């Protein structure tokens, strides 16, 4: 029995572990740099296990910049962006995938076009718009433009299209209105794609640093991705402290990804079983 | 319940705005100063506001990764700061694209407080575009043991590059090690340091007899083994040259005073025989190794506000404040004349090491320190690469220097025409 | 009937309204303006003052050998798309199980998506150095005699950078495929299982056709991403050696944000977009859901 399990699982886990090493080595190096002390950071081959692990650099990063404040700013901005994106994109995606209406092709084409056309000027033009809306230096001003997410609409349109027509028809015959259909049937069935969009939006928002820095005037309002840049200030850069800041930035997203995985599971599971 | 929660969150989101003051507001941006220099800037702001009760000075520090994006967007949206910290290259780019304005009128007769080199760094087509701020400068570290072995006097200042190259050759012949590690990978700044132009009226001009003669001198020295061959034509040979100096394989090291701490910390034996000297000036008296930081005034700053902006900019960069800033950083130089003469730089204890002496020497040389950057090229990378390759061919003797520079100039002018 | 159609339209546009409003303000407007300004001499600090110059910017572009080289490089870059899609789909199938600790592995595969591009640059720089890990391993395996200049030899540099794009995208598309796999009705697969189809057959006859919409989405996104790839170039080669890693998007970025020549930057971007439209059209032809 045990032998069979080992035979079955060993190749699979070996493969998984190899791919995992391939994908995580830069993160492991950053982690080891953040936790290590002494020795040459840039030594080759890189040292993956710190000789004298310490939390001193993490503490120094926390002492030097208001990490907690930056962290909560990030949470606030990201939570609103993720929530808003999911709401707006799912409504639009549902309309494009399920509802039949005049002009649907054109709307979809327009959405697709924004994915393709040049976006170099976006941050400048959007900053002008945000200025005119009197939203500079507010988190609203940061969040609002991020909600314009053609990718999200596209992703959820595809997801809703995969829902078998029979399921929707059955619900319609039961007398469900469009809104109920969307809320009770379509959304749960698209849960894996919603989770994917949620996590992508989170990663993009969490890591964005140019746009928030352009909109926000006072460093007190900065999210983590901008705030940690202060660790690499002039005359003061300490690679290990910067690494600690990087790890602290990445870690929350990874933990959330780990936890959010149950939403990647089959949307039907909850309803049927 | 759910609804009220969402309503409350929306309300809070909309409410997070800023308050406005009634006084004249002057906002200035610095680059990557937080959090180490918080106290310094808070003090500067407080003192200025005490002297000028009608002015509200707002200090914003931005990481260097984002300052240009933010500056571009702010100027484009008509919401610029009153002053922004830039380096010479960036200030030049913004001056060309019309995002910043000349400050000659604001400088007025206070122009004289800045060093000539610093002003020249930020003056283009006869107009000055920035208030000079902190700077850096090169010095020369010589290994006394190697000099004595070569029969040279380490205390005698070197007058120019030709003399330096001859000494390097003598070091190779008599002491058996390389004498000098010039930055031939950045030969354009070597040219500029010698007062030889690289571009004139948008055309490459570095194939003149003077340029070629200079390269011949380098070629002769190279042939004699006077130059450190490691990474000689790489863009950056700092790491290998300091390693060679620390290993006793190099007679002269040209670098910043701060970099000498690496000799002190990593190679005690060499540090004990190291003597700091001024770098030989270029033909026009230019001192190499400057990296000027400055404050620009963006386009779109309220014209009525400009005189106040000028007053504040001059306060920010005056002798006292630049001196205090040098003390705070411990590694930078001021760009104003009086501050450089301060005892902080000049009072060196008798038993001081090379690092302290170097700082004093660098400070004495500040008047003519220049930031030697090639400005005004859209896409410098391929041009500089070609120049580097041709320089290598010329100095190593694979190609005649004249032919090499002609080839590079032809390539440059073909590219620049577009 | 007509009234019904009207209510239907109104309802649909109510669903679309929030998206259309933010899209109009923050996507259509800047993107459309950008496309328009590609035909002007752009004054970035006074956009309204930009002068119409017709096709001038494009003429300048097509006279520039670096630009022409970057078209070639961008087309080469597209090779990364099929590779990344096959690998990401395989990875998604591999982790689409309930094995113990599988969530940890999925997270590990997602790490490159979260890692900041500057760290990516440093680490892959080390891998690719002349005395870097890759050359050491290859030399140890006796596959090479002299170190290969992965980033310094113009024959290899572009492919080295493309591999980093592959590495960064793997986890991203894995998540999308995983979502697609999870959304598939289980009954179909169970039926096939009863029919005695083996795993390979089930994959080709059931999984791939059912995943068509996801495959369309992923190939399209990855095609557009490959067309717009520039961050890897910025942190790894800066366009060199000898301009061999200039992609169109890097060219536009370089022109816009280093040289402030937004006229050329936007014109270059518009060329990227045109190629993007053609490729998007091909994508739709190939993976159209109704062709199953």
Automatic annotation (TrEMBL), chain A:
Transmembrane segments: 12-31, 77-99, 106-130, 142-160, 181-206, 241-260
UniProt cross-references to CDD domains, sorted A to Z: TM_PBP2
Keyword Metal-binding listed: no
Entry's localization field: Cell membrane
Residue ranges of domain ABC transmembrane type-1 in the record: 71-260
SUPFAM superfamilies, sorted: MetI-like
PROSITE patterns assigned to the protein according to its UniProt record, in alphabetical order: ABC_TM1 (PS50928)
A Gene Ontology term for the protein's cellular component: plasma membrane
One GO term of the biological process aspect: transmembrane transport
Keyword entries, A-Z: Cell membrane, Membrane, Transmembrane, Transmembrane helix, Transport
Domain of life according to the entry: Bacteria
Protein's membrane topology: Multi-pass membrane protein
Family statement drawn from the similarity comment of this UniProt entry: Belongs to the binding-protein-dependent transport system permease family.
Name this polypeptide is given: Carbohydrate ABC transporter permease
Organism in which the protein naturally occurs: Chitiniphilus eburneus
From TrEMBL, chain B:
Principal location class: periplasm
Pfam family membership, one: SBP_bac_8
Localization per Swiss-Prot or TrEMBL: Periplasm
GO cellular component, one term: periplasmic space
Keywords, ordered alphabetically: Signal
Signal peptide from the UniProt entry: 1-21
Signal found in the keyword field: yes
Record keyword Signal present: yes
Family to which this protein belongs: Belongs to the bacterial solute-binding protein 1 family.
Name of the protein this chain belongs to: Extracellular solute-binding protein
Organism the protein comes from: Chitiniphilus eburneus
From TrEMBL, chain C:
UniProt key word Repressor: no
Chain ranges of the ABC transmembrane type-1 domain: 71-283
InterPro entries: ABC_transporter_permease (IPR051393), MetI-like (IPR000515), MetI-like_sf (IPR035906)
Keyword Membrane on entry: yes
UniProt entry keywords in alphabetical sequence: Cell membrane, Membrane, Transmembrane, Transmembrane helix, Transport
One cellular component (GO) term of this entry: plasma membrane
Topology in the lipid bilayer: Multi-pass membrane protein
Transmembrane segments: 12-39, 75-95, 107-127, 156-179, 233-253, 265-284
Pfam families in the record: BPD_transp_1
Location in or out of the cell: Cell membrane
Cited Gene3D superfamilies: MetI-like (1.10.3720.10)
GO biological process terms, semicolon-separated: transmembrane transport
Family: Belongs to the binding-protein-dependent transport system permease family.
PANTHER family noted in UniProt: ABC TRANSPORTER PERMEASE PROTEIN, LACTOSE TRANSPORT SYSTEM PERMEASE PROTEIN LACF
Protein name: Sugar ABC transporter permease
């Amino acid at each position: 029995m045990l032998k069979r399990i080992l035979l079955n699982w060993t190749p699979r886990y070996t493969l998984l572990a190899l791919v995992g090493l391939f994908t995580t080595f830069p993160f492991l190096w950053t982690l080891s740099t953040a936790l290590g002390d002494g020795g040459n950071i840039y030594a080759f081959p890189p040292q993956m296990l710190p000789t004298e692990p310490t939390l001193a650099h993490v503490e120094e990063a926390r002492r030097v910049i208001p990490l907690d404040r930056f962290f909560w700013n990030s949470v606030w901005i990201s939570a609103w962006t993720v929530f808003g994106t999911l709401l707006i994109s799912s409504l639009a995606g549902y309309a494009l995938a399920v509802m039949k209406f005049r002009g649907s092709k054109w709307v979809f084409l327009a959405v697709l076009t924004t994915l393709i056309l040049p976006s170099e000027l976006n941050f400048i033009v959007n900053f002008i718009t945000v200025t005119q809306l009197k939203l500079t230096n507010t988190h609203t001003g940061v969040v609002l433009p991020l909600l314009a997410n053609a990718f999200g609409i596209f992703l959820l349109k595809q997801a809703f299209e995969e829902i078998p027509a029979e399921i929707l028809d059955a619900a319609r015959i039961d007398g469900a209105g469009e809104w109920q259909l969307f809320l009770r049937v379509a959304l749960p069935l698209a849960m894996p794609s919603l989770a994917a969009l949620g996590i992508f939006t989170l990663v993009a928002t969490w890591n964005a640093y140019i746009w928030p820095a352009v909109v926000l005037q006072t460093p007190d309002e900065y999210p983590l991705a901008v705030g940690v840049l202060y660790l690499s200030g002039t005359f003061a850069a300490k690679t290990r402290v910067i690494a600690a800041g990087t790890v602290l930035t990445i870690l929350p997203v990874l933990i959330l990804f780990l936890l959010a995985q149950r939403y990647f599971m089959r949307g039907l599971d909850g309803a049927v079983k | 319940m759910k609804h009220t929660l969402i309503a409350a969150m929306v309300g809070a989101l909309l409410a997070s705005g800023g308050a406005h003051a009634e006084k004249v507001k002057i906002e200035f941006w610095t680059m990557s100063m937080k959090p180490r220099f918080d106290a310094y800037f808070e003090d500067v702001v407080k003192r200025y506001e005490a002297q000028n009760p009608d002015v509200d000075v707002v200090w914003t520090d931005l990481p260097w990764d984002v300052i240009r994006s933010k500056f571009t967007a702010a100027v484009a949206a008509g919401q610029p700061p009153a002053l922004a910290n830039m380096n010479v290259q960036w200030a030049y780019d913004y001056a060309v694209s019309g995002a910043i304005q000349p400050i000659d009128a604001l400088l007025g007769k206070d122009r004289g407080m800045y060093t000539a080199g610093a002003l020249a760094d930020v003056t283009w087509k006869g107009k000055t575009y920035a208030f000079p701020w902190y700077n850096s400068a090169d010095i020369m570290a010589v290994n006394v043991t190697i000099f004595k072995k070569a029969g040279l006097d380490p205390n005698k200042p070197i007058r120019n590059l030709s003399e330096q190259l001859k000494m390097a050759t003598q070091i190779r012949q008599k002491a058996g090690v390389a004498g000098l590690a010039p930055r031939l990978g950045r030969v354009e700044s070597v040219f500029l340091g010698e007062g030889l132009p690289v571009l004139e009226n948008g055309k490459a001009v570095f194939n003149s007899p003077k340029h070629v003669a200079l390269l011949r001198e380098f070629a002769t020295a190279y042939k004699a083994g006077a130059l450190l061959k490691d990474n000689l034509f790489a863009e950056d040979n700092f790491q290998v040259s300091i390693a060679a100096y620390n290993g006793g394989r190099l007679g002269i090291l040209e670098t910043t005073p701060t970099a000498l701490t690496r000799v002190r910390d990593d190679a005690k034996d060499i540090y004990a025989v190291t003597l700091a000297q001024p770098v030989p000036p270029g033909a026009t008296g230019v001192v190499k190794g400057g990296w000027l930081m400055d404050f620009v005034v963006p386009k779109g700053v309220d014209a009525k506000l400009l005189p106040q902006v000028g007053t504040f900019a001059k306060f920010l960069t005056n002798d006292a404040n630049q001196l205090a800033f040098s003390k705070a950083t411990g590694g930078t130089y001021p760009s104003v004349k009086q501050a450089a003469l301060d005892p902080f730089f000049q009072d060196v204890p008798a038993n001081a090491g090379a690092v302290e002496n170097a700082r004093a020497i660098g400070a004495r040389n500040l008047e003519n320190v220049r930031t030697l950057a090639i400005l005004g090229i859209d896409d410098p990378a391929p041009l500089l690469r070609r120049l580097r390759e041709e320089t290598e061919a010329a100095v190593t003797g694979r190609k005649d220097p004249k032919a090499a520079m002609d080839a590079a100039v032809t390539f440059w002018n073909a590219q620049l025409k577009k | 009937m007509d009234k019904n159609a009207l209510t239907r339209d109104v309802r649909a546009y109510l669903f679309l309204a929030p998206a259309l409003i933010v899209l109009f303000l923050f996507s259509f407007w800047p993107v459309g303006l950008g496309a328009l300004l590609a035909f002007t001499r752009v004054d970035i600090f006074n956009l309204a003052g930009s002068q119409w110059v017709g096709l001038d910017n494009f003429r300048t572009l097509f006279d520039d050998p670096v630009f022409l080289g970057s078209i070639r490089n961008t087309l080469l870059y597209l090779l990364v798309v099929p590779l990344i899609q096959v690998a990401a789909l395989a990875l998604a199938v591999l982790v689409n199980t309930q094995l113990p600790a599988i969530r940890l592995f999925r997270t590990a595969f997602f790490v490159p998506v979260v890692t900041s591009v500057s760290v990516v640059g440093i680490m892959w720089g080390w891998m690719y150095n002349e005395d870097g890990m890759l050359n050491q391993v290859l030399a140890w395996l006796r596959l090479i005699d002299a170190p290969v200049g992965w980033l310094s030899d113009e024959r290899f540099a572009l492919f080295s950078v493309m591999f980093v794009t592959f590495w960064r995208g793997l986890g991203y598309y894995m998540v999308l495929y995983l979502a697609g796999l999870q959304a598939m009705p289980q009954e179909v697969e169970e039926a096939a299982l009863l029919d005695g189809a083996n795993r390979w057959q089930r994959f080709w006859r059931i999984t791939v056709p059912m995943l068509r919409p996801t495959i369309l989405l992923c190939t399209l996104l990855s095609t557009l991403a490959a067309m717009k790839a520039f961050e890897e170039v910025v942190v790894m080669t800066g366009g060199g050696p000898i301009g061999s890693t200039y992609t169109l998007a890097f060219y536009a970025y370089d022109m816009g944000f280093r040289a402030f020549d937004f006229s050329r930057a936007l014109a270059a971007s518009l060329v990227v977009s045109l190629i993007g439209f053609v490729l998007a059209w091909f994508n739709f032809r190939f993976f159209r859901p109704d062709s199953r």
